[in-house]
Amino acid sequence: MRTQVLIIGAGPAGLLLGQLLHKAGVDNLILERQTGDYVLGRIRAGVLEQTTADLLDEAGVGARMHAEGLVHHGFDLMVDGQRHHVDLHRLTGGKSVVVYGQTEVTRDLMQARAAAGLPTFHGAADVQLSGFDTGHPLARCTVDGETVEVRCDFIAGCDGYHGVSRASVPPGAIQTHEKVYPFGWLGLLSDTPPVSHELIYGRHERGFSLCSMRSSTRSRYYLQVPLTERAEDWSDARFWDELRRRLDPGTADALVTGPSLEKSIAPLRSFVAEPMRFGRLFLAGDAAHIVPPTGAKGLNLAASDVRYLSQALIEHYRERSDAGITHYSARCLSRVWKAERFSWWFTGLMHPLPDEPAIDARLRRAELDYLVGSDAAMTAMAENYVGLPW
Ligand code: FAS
Ligand code: PHB
């Protein structure tokens, strides 16, 4: 079979790209390794930058986000039992973020794709890519035991950190940068009212915690844990007890606990692959970069890559211009590295390391004291958190 743009991966990046291309009349097809339910079952991001929300509107999938999403004008930092409000709205001249789970974004995009009757092959096994560096891109895979071959003009690798797209690039043509953090995030989802109306990023000598949410009745909490920990070793009671110990007394008293709907541990890494284009193969989203989730940038970076890539491909077909394609990688990476820096900085600031030298702990404490006492420092953090301009 043949299509203009073949997309590998039906996560948020692949689905959003497919929707934007479809609305511009560009033919596309998605190969996805997992089932749709499996993709929806992965609990991930929760915060959308306004530019991401605007792009979902442009893709025609923003209605439920506006109806159910929560607009947040700030968040709290909790440092050794003291809460400090970060007034995003004031510090950024009126900007905010939208709390709306990645699962719901993915669901909205899946429903839009199905309603448009666009082809997505779930259960696509052993995807193999070739010809993207000779002008004749080709993908082969197996679907329900049958061999499927797709010829196309371009391949968009939206298949995440463990995908086949980046792995298909000749090693000499790609450079990767990686930092693995010596801890993970143990996440818990529960149908309990959030402990606060906004997010609380907490730093405590026992470790980092994050109090987040999905709605006014569904909460998402995270605890920094050693990489040796396993989610199955954490009962709900153990999780709630540990979270309470890391919160200030007033917040701990206000915490409403309940049975977990999901518990999982995510490793934290900073990762970038350069460049993000190889002939007619483009990488977008987690296939090209990973950020520690502290700064809530992962999903939002995927959205900005997809915006640049959709614009470049639409320009190729509509205006017979390859200027966007030529500049795609540099344009993405300029934004990616700024988000990597912010996520690395915020992660280092909020996560104590068990065996760190005493002076490092004191320097970090001094930076926190400076941050919470300086409008200039808080403004710098706020403008990165709401998202730098596209
Ligand atoms: P995704 O990984 O979401 O999607 C890639 C898709 O490609 C998947 O559906 C996969 O099944 C498919 N695929 C993979 N290999 C394939 C192959 N060979 N053939 C066909 N299909 C293939 N971000 C935040 O902002 N906040 C968070 O709290 C947060 N938590 C996270 C927790 C975890 C465990 C992970 C892994 C990521 C987390 N992220 C978080 C980042 C996350 O939200 C990503 O940024 C987001 O999923 C990026 O979307 P995609 O680029 O579409 O990649
Ligand atoms: C989430 O709600 O899952 C979430 C929110 C903010 C972050 C990371 C995760 O920085």
- Supply the helix-strand structural class: alpha+beta
CATH class of the domain at 2-52 and 65-71 and 101-178 and 269-348: Alpha Beta
Report on the biggest sheet: 8 strands, mixed
CATH superfamily of the domain at 2-52 and 65-71 and 101-178 and 269-348: FAD/NAD(P)-binding domain
How many distinct helices?
12
Termini distance? 36 Å
CATH topology of the domain at 2-52 and 65-71 and 101-178 and 269-348, by name, is: FAD/NAD(P)-binding domain
Number of strands: 19
Strand content: 25-35%
Which compounds are bound in this model?
arabino-flavin-adenine dinucleotide, P-hydroxybenzoic acid
Radius of gyration: 21 Å
The CATH architecture assignment of the domain at 2-52 and 65-71 and 101-178 and 269-348 turns out to be 3-Layer(bba) Sandwich
Q: Please tell me what the overall shape is.
A: globular
Spans of at least 5 consecutive residues with low confidence? none
Mean pLDDT: 97
